Amino acid sequence: MHPLLLANHLIMLAGGIDGNKRPLDGSEIWGVTLVGLGVVIVALAILVILILLFGKIFDQINKNQKEKEAAAAAKKKPKQAPVKKVAAPVQEKPAQKPSTAPTVQTVSAPVSDEDEVIAVISAVVAVMSEQDGKNYRIKSVAKSQRSNGFSGRSAWAMDGRRQNVNPF
Amino acid sequence: MHPLLLANHLIMLAGGIDGNKRPLDGSEIWGVTLVGLGVVIVALAILVILILLFGKIFDQINKNQKEKEAAAAAKKKPKQAPVKKVAAPVQEKPAQKPSTAPTVQTVSAPVSDEDEVIAVISAVVAVMSEQDGKNYRIKSVAKSQRSNGFSGRSAWAMDGRRQNVNPF
Amino acid sequence: MHPLLLANHLIMLAGGIDGNKRPLDGSEIWGVTLVGLGVVIVALAILVILILLFGKIFDQINKNQKEKEAAAAAKKKPKQAPVKKVAAPVQEKPAQKPSTAPTVQTVSAPVSDEDEVIAVISAVVAVMSEQDGKNYRIKSVAKSQRSNGFSGRSAWAMDGRRQNVNPF
Amino acid sequence: MLQILQDILSGLFETSGLAGLAAEPLKLLMMCISFLFMYLAIVKGFEPLLLLPISFGMFLSNLPAVLPEDMIFHAAYWNEPQSVEWLWKVLHDGGLLDKLYLGVKLQIYPCLIFLGIGTMTDFGPLIANPKSFLLGAAAQGGIFFTFLAAGYMGMSAAECGSIAIIGGADGPTSIYVSSKLLDGADSSLNTGTIALAAYTYMALVPVIQPPIMRLMTTEKERKIKMPQLRTPSKTEKIVFPVVVTLIVALLVPSAASLVGMLMFGNILKESGVAGRLVDTAQNALMNIVTIFLGVSVGATCTASNVANLAFVKVLILGVIAFSLGTACGLGLAKIMNWLSGGKVNPLIGSAGVSAVPMAARISQQEGAKADPTNFLLMHAMGPNVAGVIGSAVAAGVLLSVVNY
Amino acid sequence: MLQILQDILSGLFETSGLAGLAAEPLKLLMMCISFLFMYLAIVKGFEPLLLLPISFGMFLSNLPAVLPEDMIFHAAYWNEPQSVEWLWKVLHDGGLLDKLYLGVKLQIYPCLIFLGIGTMTDFGPLIANPKSFLLGAAAQGGIFFTFLAAGYMGMSAAECGSIAIIGGADGPTSIYVSSKLLDGADSSLNTGTIALAAYTYMALVPVIQPPIMRLMTTEKERKIKMPQLRTPSKTEKIVFPVVVTLIVALLVPSAASLVGMLMFGNILKESGVAGRLVDTAQNALMNIVTIFLGVSVGATCTASNVANLAFVKVLILGVIAFSLGTACGLGLAKIMNWLSGGKVNPLIGSAGVSAVPMAARISQQEGAKADPTNFLLMHAMGPNVAGVIGSAVAAGVLLSVVNY
Amino acid sequence: MLQILQDILSGLFETSGLAGLAAEPLKLLMMCISFLFMYLAIVKGFEPLLLLPISFGMFLSNLPAVLPEDMIFHAAYWNEPQSVEWLWKVLHDGGLLDKLYLGVKLQIYPCLIFLGIGTMTDFGPLIANPKSFLLGAAAQGGIFFTFLAAGYMGMSAAECGSIAIIGGADGPTSIYVSSKLLDGADSSLNTGTIALAAYTYMALVPVIQPPIMRLMTTEKERKIKMPQLRTPSKTEKIVFPVVVTLIVALLVPSAASLVGMLMFGNILKESGVAGRLVDTAQNALMNIVTIFLGVSVGATCTASNVANLAFVKVLILGVIAFSLGTACGLGLAKIMNWLSGGKVNPLIGSAGVSAVPMAARISQQEGAKADPTNFLLMHAMGPNVAGVIGSAVAAGVLLSVVNY
Ligand code: NA
Ligand code: NA
Ligand code: NA
Predict the structure, then answer these.
(1) What is the pTM of this model?
(2) Angstrom distance (rounded) from CA D220 to CA D222
(3) Quick check: D25 pLDDT over 90?
(4) Domain map of chain E by residue range?
(5) Fewer CB atoms inside 10 Å of the end CB: C or N, chain A?
(6) Which of F83, F253, F260 sits opposite D16 (nearest CB)?
């Protein structure tokens, strides 16, 4: 049997080799080597394909979202400003128990039928994450990433997360 | 048997219900529900009474203490000042819990008996805590509530606590 | 048997005393007391001797090193300065991944046959540890001794350590 | 070359998880459910500290595996009779999550989490207004009325208790009770699904409670302002954990472990002399236990446990339990308001379900909606922390009534 | 209605802890003792990091409970013969504190605490003045002379050793030795009472030592000033833990575990290359172990163990052990002073009992009283840390002489 | 008096470790080897976080002891057949390091360390350039070609696998695989020596890799600049761990534990909603496990295990494994460069061996040497973190092919 016939090795190795077996014969040695390396490469190659694919998909989604955003921004330009203003104090808190939060929620509460105003929110999110990014860097130096870089959409989701900063 | 006769349920439930029993009969179901809720309410009601009682007692104690204090302050006005001065640095550390009240205690601690030399010791303590205090303050900022907001009465109690900041 | 004959006790105690034995006879009691105290004193006395010895040895090493250093300093005065200068930024880093380090390495690289230029290095080390000493105190107050007070000699050793500050 | 690759791939299929997946297609469904909960945890912010580990544990244990030695969690182990040999099997042959799950099964994690919670809880508002205890007690009505409903649905005693405790709105307590009651019980329920439901509904408190609150209270009631609470002395705060532990242990000894650890943590905190230990108990220790508990409890959600009618019942009864608990709390608060001559805002009653500190924030929020100058937070914190004690007591009652 | 309530209350009584309390009134006494120690820990600042967990553990294990499954700690388990079945019983049927106490019984916690202590100890003053080792050795006289006293009081060998080790003024060492020696011994002593006494007297060092120090030294001796110590090099500090471990292991192998872990922690610290590990060893790990050790050791203080003559003997012999240790240290320091021609201040001798860093502070304080410009702290730290090593060696001797 | 002292000393000798040392002189050699590794760790900075605990553990377990109850580690225990009675023996009669080593033997520590690594790893560069996966795969050639070499040297299958995995340049993976494969195997190898070699060579990466890199690449290739990578979105980073876990579990189920915990840690981090848990997983938990793992793995290096030819073979094959891995990575990178028409700098190929983040830094450094404006770090981080996944997959393959 030629040592490079991978498939044969595979069949041979199906039952596994006894750990105490010594010495191994050439077919077993080459089998483990070639099949092993083959499996690793195949597994990681599949990951290459999948991650490339996901990258494309997310790119597409982002692109669509940005277009929508732009359209929405054009429509609702006057509304965007005040929300930003109110949202700001939420980011400024250095501590974990912001009693200012409820105010923000009542403001963003009208944003109930999620999809239409998503552009406004994501603009806020963008502003937030810019500030938040800074926080994050500083915090991670100090001790830990207590800041939540991710940002939920609905009012109570925010509240939920906030609760868990202190919790349980 | 009427399901609302709690006492009967209690007797029934004394031996407990087999976890795998299915279906439960009405008496068992109502038994657990009513007796269970009853026990929870009774237990917590007893706590209401006790905690109210303790509240009253502590209020009384505090009141008595304040009166004594006022009297003592009137008596020992000249002596109080220097001691306060020495004790002050110990209290100044930026702890999380208001620690001014204990200061009064150390003062009114009628400086029991040991202690003609207490002034000397507390001077040493003051010197020590000045060095120690600096380190200490930095520590508490950095990490956690290492500071002890509570303050013992005798000189060596303080020392005991201090030991445990570094310890073991 | 006189209770102070240590050797006899030792032989007696060789097999150990049953933990539940009660009452112990005088010989056992005195045996444990005297032999026990004896062993503790002997063990720690041996440590006294050894640590004194090591102290002397290290003193001698240090002395020799300093003499060499002085000689080396006299010889290589112009070379010493730049090394110090380059090494300085390594100490100033507040973060854990200094990319300036390689520069230092290339500088200290000629220091290959270790012993001859050890004086130069130890001078640098001395300067480093002076600064480092300060860092150390402050750091330990803050949270942990992430600073490495010790300093390797070869180029890649530095890199190796650096890796492990962040790792794994 | 292509032939060889094809052979390899077909060989791989035989020995790989793909074959496992083909054999058990339900695993795919389970993984999708785990993704849903990951989404809820990460994007919607549903109790992420627990739902994220739980959902990832669920994902890990539903990964297809052909050989038992490759499995990260062996659901089958946990239905076997337990003995010291079984312990060895779990430790030696089990996957990582089996080993971590021992801490749940041996009742260690929930108590340690209660220790941490104790170090983070301020009982001050409850000491200042001890009547809040009654609201914390009333809200446990959710637990017992759900027991009633589950009982009449023909469930076994262990199942009734496990589902009912979800109404306590207290994760560790739910895990503690259900892992004890369902230990060896002949049931399609398991600790994982109970925990999933409990944490999901805890995250949904801001959705579940407000409608009930508005339904059960009048605008006028919601506008009631309550006077500022006194500040309890340090001594009271130190005596409190001892008194509560003692009373609970005297009346409901089976609740002593949970309440005892909660109060141990609290006295460490209130004493002010053990800062080192408090810091560790509420950070390193609690987080380690949370990770282990979350990921291993999640692992118990295997297809046979979740993809059945029982889980649907859990979900339905769980939301009923929460709603009833809210309603009971509100109801007693209304009575207290009536008895006190209009001095108690009934909105603080709903905070008695625990779900600390979320339920108290909902009370604050609803009060502020009725009158923006109304500040109920501290008044609601009293029933809120009382609810934790109340749930633990209710847990003790269930554990002593149902033989496991 | 009232009748029903009365029935409930009477029913509750039967099944509750109140009945348990009526059956075992001594538990009430034990709880009161636990309150006393809580008071000492919180208000008087007696070693609160350990006495507070110990006293709360004592409180928890003396709560009345009728049914064994409700008990947080089962004192009875720990007098049974131990086997793997027994291990399973503890894990499966035991309360939380039983499970945590396994870490004491299996000798894990004290070693881990020594690891943490090692990362916090600076042996610099001892390296600078190695003769301090002798003072650290002499102060262990307290241990052995107490063994003598206990022996003549008719105690068993295990009891003598357990009480004597209190004189070492070292909590983890006392717990390590007594949990080994009393394991299976027919004794009314237990680890909990030994630990209580040890930590209490450690907290009382500032009360016990000064009178003895003033009695045994003259004003002139106390005024002796000692020259500044040299600063040992980094290399010496790194070599030191290795040398000490090696010598101790060669001479007293049974002390190797304690000393080895102490020195492992120390080399981690002194190497300066493992800051991450040092941080965790002295914080998270040490605090977790301290909590578990404290609360579970305290739990062993049940009525049958404490409310007897043996505990009184422990208290009396404990204070004698401390006093003798102090006296022995002072005595040798006086001899060293005499031999050196008046260059050694005898006050540093008392620091040899360990109780780090309190005993060294007392030396400093007494020296400053005699002459306010006298600064003995660093000179006293040498004997002080030597005392830790000395106690561990003495522990090794006791463990190898008494068969357990 | 002198006579008595002499008698004591001779008596001490009989019962002390000195006699043990005389009986087993090889222990002295082992201690010297441990000092060598301490030196490498402390002075030379060789992976000190692991080599310092490992070398101190080695020192502790080679301390001479006459009596088994004085030994800190019992090498003999770990060659016995394992059962629940054996577990009890380890827990009850074992030394501290035996107890800690259970966490290695039961496969707990490496998975928890992978959890911590996951919370510290940024897969961004790999997501941005998924082709890096191939380089991380190719570099595992070091593992398999070393298996080949070891096989032809007449080693057993378990030994071949244990030595080969060193080429993965991944400490926890090496410990995970070798502790499984060598469990009960009739071999003179052991986990300790594998770990020693793995961490030593990881520390030596900056010495081993550069010559091979310069040999296999031309000056022109080393000067190739690569364009800046795109920044992956948060969603991609969150989806990534799930996808990788799923694919790996489908194809190589026996790698699921390691990869699953790595990705659990990563999703905790990337989700951004579990900061508390991330902090603890990468600090307290990871450091505790590192201490326990290091010191107990080191303890397995006893004289009979190390002072033989097998260890020399491990050292030789280990360096071959590293070199081959580097060469394979470089080789594939050269092919990719050729296929892409000169757009891939082959230097990033060597980073595929993992040894995060050192190998990536070496790539950066060598690139900067060829052209100081060349910035390869982020491009090398892709293969670098892919190497971690690749090694775990290779570990899974070895574990499923060799029956243990
Ligand atoms: Na509740
Ligand atoms: Na001592
Ligand atoms: Na690798």
Answers:
(1) 0.84
(2) 5
(3) no
(4) 29-63+104-401
(5) N
(6) F253
